[in-house]
Amino acid sequence: MKSAVFYLGFLAVVLAILLGLSIWKGSEREKLIAQLTDDNTQLQYQVSQLEEQLNPKGTEEKTPQSLLKKELDKITRLEEGTAGSTLKAVTVSANLLDWCTETQLTDEEIDKTVKDYYDSLTEEEKQLFAKHTAILKNYAGQIITGEQGIETLLESAGNPQQHESYTMEQADRLWNAISKVLI
After folding, report:
1. Threshold 0.90, pTM exceeds
2. Residue-wise pLDDT tens digits, 57-95
3. Residue 61 class from Cβ within 10 Å (0-12 exposed, 13-18 middle, 19+ buried)?
4. From CA 139, how far away is CA 153, in angstroms rounded?
5. Phi-psi label, residue 84: left if phi above 0, alpha if psi -120 to 50, beta otherwise
6. Which contacts of 51-57 are long-range, i.e. CB under 8 A and separated by 24 or more positions?
7. What gap in Å lies between CA 109 and CA 126, rounded to an integer?
């Protein structure tokens, strides 16, 4: 009788352990499933954001001219006298140099696009465009020549350069087109 009670007690303990393991594994499994579901949802959101950036809805086709206008707009919209404005200017200058290095537009196409952009500006925007062009051209020249101190600014700005070096000839294609409309 004692052995039967012992065996029944032992069996009850084993069943309790098995039941406990089953419940524990079930809750762990549920936690893992919940975590994987959350991770999947986050990844789907990130993928949709990347797709939106690559193919924004309702926007015009990205032509070389529209990309140039986007860069020209950065000149007009440059903020001055605010916290980080120098770093923003260095970043825009590096972006302009990247554009100059990568563009396939001819000089005539650059001239026409710059003129069309400039003609679309208000008088106040034209003044800002001229003022900001001088600032950005100065920083671009420093980036091209590797002037002392520019490397520190570039590093502080998050090293926005996409190329290791630039030439004045590449940059002058854009600066010359801008100079023609500022005369």
Report:
1. no
2. 555 568 889 999 999 999 999 988 888 888 999 999 999
3. exposed
4. 10
5. left
6. none
7. 20
